[in-house]
Amino acid sequence: MRAEQSGVPTIENGAPLSAANAAPLPTLVIEPARGRFSLQLDRLWAYRELLYFLVWRDVKVRYKQTALGVAWIVLQPLLTTLIFTVLFGMLLEVPSGDVPYPVFALTGLVPWQYFAGALTRTSASLVGNAHLITKVYFPRLIIPLTGVLSGLVDFAIGFVLLAVMLIIYRIQPTPAVLLLPAFLLLAMATALGFGLWLAALNVRYRDIGYLVPFFIQIWLYATPVAYGSTLIPEQYRWLLGLNPMTGVVEGFRWALLGQAPPGRLFALSVAITTVVLLTGLVYFRRTERTFADVV
């Protein structure tokens, strides 16, 4: 029997559906965090598809309508390595151990440029996605996390370039190369930790957007990328450990070039990154309820 054309839901024989028989609509209940330091990280897994699409969108948009496209990922470390080689390797004769200076510089530049790009994108992520924050609910932590994960594509291409350089100069990585994921994870945690602080502050104080490029430029020269940590006198070398990226760069050179292991500098870098990441997560969670009103 044909269903009647009315506003009442019907089944095939024309009988109306009762409230008990109708399929209930899914309901999403948004609750405030329980406890002073509740991070609700489990919600990230529930919204993993959104995270995937935001990462994919970030990668596509970054090189859309550019003349060279993905070639910029290769040109940036190559040109920077060339400048460092001429300035530090040839003119200032900065020691690079028993490896050629171009390889020495590129080994530090690959993780550094990933970190710098991830920190830049993360710090501006909330302001750049204001249209999403003000219209729909999702865990706000997904937005800065997108900037950290999307940079892994650039890192992978840069690492392939570094591998080619190692082959050209006939440098064989040490067995410590198996620890490279740990050093990369430290760079990711450092970018996310500082990025959470800067992203949350950037929502309220837009000066942060102008400060970050200058901050990263100074950070580059405070990190042993163009020089080795052995260039710093022993009594002041612990100051390098206050910079978490010191452990990352020294770890890459240890694993790939066979230079001195990071040692206590790495332990100090891990400790500082842990503190910055945990406090960044807490501060981000405590301020995210105001993002939609302020951004």
The multimeric state of the shown protein is single chain
Helix and strand string, N-terminal first? HHHHHHHHHHHHH
Main β-sheet: number of strands, strand sense, barrel status?
A: none
Q: What level of helicity do the residues show? A: 55-70%
Annotation field: number of helices: 13
Low-confidence sequence ranges: 1-12
Structural class by sheet pairing and helices: mainly alpha
Number of strands: 0
Give me the Rg, rounded: 25 Å
Mean pLDDT: 83
Strand composition percent: under 5%
Q: How far apart, in Å, are the first and last alpha carbons?
A: 56 Å
- The rough form would be described as globular
Describe this structure in words.
With 295 residues, the protein is an all-alpha fold. The chain contains 13 helices and no strands. Helix 2 (48-62) crosses helix 7 (142-168) and helix 7 (142-168) runs antiparallel to helix 8.
What's the arrangement of secondary structure elements?
Elements: H1 42-46, H2 48-62, H3 71-91, H4 101-123, H5 125-128, H6 130-133, H7 142-168, H8 180-204, H9 207-221, H10 238-241, H11 244-257, H12 264-287, H13 291-294
Helix pairs in contact: 2-7, 3-4, 4-7, 4-8, 4-9, 4-11, 7-8, 8-9, 8-11, 8-12, 11-12
Key traits:
mainly alpha; 63% helix; 295 residues; globular; disordered N terminus
Please give a quick description of this structure.
With 295 residues, this protein is mainly α. It is 63% helix and 0% strand.
